[in-house]
Amino acid sequence: MNVMILNFNESPENYHLEMALTRVLIKKGYSFLKIHNYKHNYSKLSTLPNPEINRINWKEFDIKSYDSDILISIDFPWKIDSSSVFYLNLIKKIKKPEIMITNHLLPVKGQSDFYDTIINTNFFKLFEKTYIFEFEDESLWPEKINTVIKRKYYIDSEYYKPVKTEKKAKKITIFSAGAKGRDYNSLIYACGENVNLKILTNVNIKPSPNVEIFRPGANLFNFKKIISQSDFTVIPISDNELNQTAGLAMAFISMAMAKPVLIRRTTYTEKYIKDSENGFLYNSISELKSHIKRIINQKEKLHIIGRNARKTIEEKASLDSFAQMVIEENI
Prior knowledge:
The chain is of the alpha/beta class. The chain folds into 2 domains: about 1-150, Glycogen Phosphorylase B (Rossmann fold), CATH 3.40.50.2000; about 170-315, Glycogen Phosphorylase B (Rossmann fold, 3-Layer(aba) Sandwich), CATH 3.40.50. It is about 30% helix and about 20% strand. Strands 3-2-1-4-5-6-7 form a 7-stranded parallel beta sheet, sandwiched between helices. α1 (about 10-30) packs across α9. The termini are close together.
């Protein structure tokens, strides 16, 4: 069985999914080839001894020398360039069972130059199955599409594991991250002066003695270290944010690293977090101060709650379990 994986939308999330699929394929003993258009090296995000195994740049690929039994596309390209033209031609030429896993993009006009180009074509009809997030609006997808399978959100719990790091600060340290829908002013106010706050974001925040700002691009490979030096994570979602899953990615990463998370209560977060058991939930951003105080008052229990959070991710949101499901359903 030969499996071809196309990864033509460069992002850490898509690289993690590629690595999860790779781990499953190696475990099952299948032959595979991964073709990509990445310009940066993300190998530090992999747990594999050789992340680049059977992984080549699209310019090195010769279709005459390789035959696949099934093709899996991780997202579709973002831009229109020579690599996306190659991608589209390859998809059309192979004509084998083809699977699309959307992980980063939606078929929304104006979001992707590639999609804007193929919007009036039967592009998605080329795929037998398309996996989309269960919280996405299915009506966004073109009518000319084959089987749609809704999937949960997953995180690479093989990479994001608890890390033993010596904590420098004696104060309680809180981690936070993200940009969309975040209310960092409320978080900074809620923390006061007796808590150290580490924030990973591109949002411009007014400097403060107890607030340390990290930029995502410059700290991609320091991400785990920053989280590991915190006691727990707070995701300050604004009350006006309509997205029920806002902050979920950062919450799952922290939980996978056995860090308790305080996040807004929604129908979706309640599926994964039970208050005071494997994390904490708030109803309104105005409650942050009281909830943070409540969490600090039970700091002796945080390691137990964090361990339960890690267990929840392993059981409900492991990226490898999703990758295994995709492989076993289609091969």
